[in-house]
Amino acid sequence: MDEESKSELSAREKRKTEQLAAILKREEGSKLLRKAKKIAAKHPDKRSTKDLIFIHRNERLFDREERCFREQEAARQRDEARRRETHDIDEILDSKCQVLAEAIKTSKHFIVYTGAGISTAANIPDYRGPNGVWTRMEQGQPYLDPNASFDITTAQPTFTHMALLKLHEKGYLKYIVSQNCDGLHVRSGFPREDLSEIHGNMYMEICGNCDPEAEYFRPFDVTTKTRFRRHGTGRFCHRCQHELKDTIVLFGEKSRTESPMNWRSGLDHAVCADVVLSLGSSLKILKDYPGLWRKDHDLYVVNLQWTPKDDEARLKINGKCDEVLRRVFAHLGLTADVFQPTEDRLLRICIPLRDGETFDKPACSPEGVIKPGWFGQGVKALIKPRPKDSENRKQNKKPKLE
Ligand SMILES: [Zn+2]
């Protein structure tokens, strides 16, 4: 072997030895890290002599890991506490409802934000409540409660929906911004000009080709064939023959239509509002719409779980929406009407299908795992987040103010 080959061989050997040493060092490092994590997670009283020797020898590493463990533990406990439902005891609940009733009575411009919590009494599952889709997924349970109703169109407006209608009729309530797609505010008879359904309405399909947009209300869920970024419903505009689209805004999407979002009116009312009541919303999405929040309005939050606006609220009421509104109505001396299916507003505004037009009845898998339509699409988005969703959400956080 000539000199050149020998030196090449030794250089290769040297590189190999160095690589091996680096691997061993890395492995040793991760072994120490694993051990430090394990000891940090133990209660100090439960640490063995061996553990204490380890801590003594690897003081800096251990301190860092212990700090990290404590922070994670604190975050875990905080999240758990935030998810927990709290119910105010009767006496406190009632005095809070009296304060809210007084605020409504003396308000100049009272508006309401509603979330899924006002429809759970109508058996429509929510996402973040204790039996919500999100929560059940985290607990490794089927996404939907097998006992829950699978046909959302059978849900009817709750006491809260009817109470809000009455407050509007009496002139107290000026406007509702709702995150719910279940259409129950419209079905209760709440006037559409004073309502923003910012995530869409499951009973509404729209022709964006007509100017102004042509609206088609239907007495069925129009979203059974639609999905993320594909909103064609398979039915066509009676005027211009273009395919109709649903109005649902899924996770990661932007609103595509003026109606039923009515953002312009919603934001106009938010600017004038002196009293804002948030009912049954986690406010995790709504908090990101800056136009809805003013420093000088009085905010009242009704929710059983923590919300990110609790600290800013004048009053946080830990109660179910129906129960809170029943008490508020008692203090105001008002009675809400009972919803009559024969007076369902949808029946009056819906456009009948023409010959050859069809729709699918909602159906679900026997296990009740995935539901079609807007609600099922929302569940799917939770299970399989699309890569671009987080990016879209960031861009989408703040609505465009025209
Ligand atoms: Zn059209």
Write up this protein:
The protein has 12 helices and 10 strands. The chain has helices at 3-40, 49-57, 59-83, 90-106, 133-138, 159-169, 184-188, 263-272, 321-332, 345-349, 373-383, 389-396; strands spanning 110-114, 173-178, 195-197, 204-207, 214-217, 232-236, 243-246, 275-279, 298-302, 315-317. It is an alpha/beta fold and 402 residues long. It is extended, with a radius of gyration of 28 Å. It has 2 domains: 21-82; 88-396, TPP-binding domain (Rossmann fold). The structure holds zinc ion. Zinc ion binds at residues 207, 209-210, 214, 237, 239-240, 242.
| Spans where pLDDT lies below 50 across 5 or more residues | 386-402
Q: What share of residues is helical?
A: 25-40%
Report the count of strand segments. Answer: 10
Looking across the biggest beta sheet, what order are the strands in?
3-2-1-8-9-10
Bound molecule types: zinc ion
Question: Tell me, what is the CATH class of the largest domain?
Answer: Alpha Beta
Coarse morphology: extended
Query: What share of residues are in beta strands?
Result: 5-15%
Provide a count of the helices: 12
Question: How many structural domains in the coordinates?
Answer: 2
Q: Radius of gyration, Cα only, in angstroms?
A: 28 Å
Largest sheet: 6 strands, parallel
Give, in order, the helices and strands: HHHHEHHEHEEEEEHEEEHHHH
Main structural class: alpha/beta
CATH H-level superfamily of the largest domain: TPP-binding domain
Organism: Ramazzottius varieornatus
Cofactor: Zn(2+)
Domain Deacetylase sirtuin-type: 90-335
Family: Belongs to the sirtuin family. Class IV subfamily.
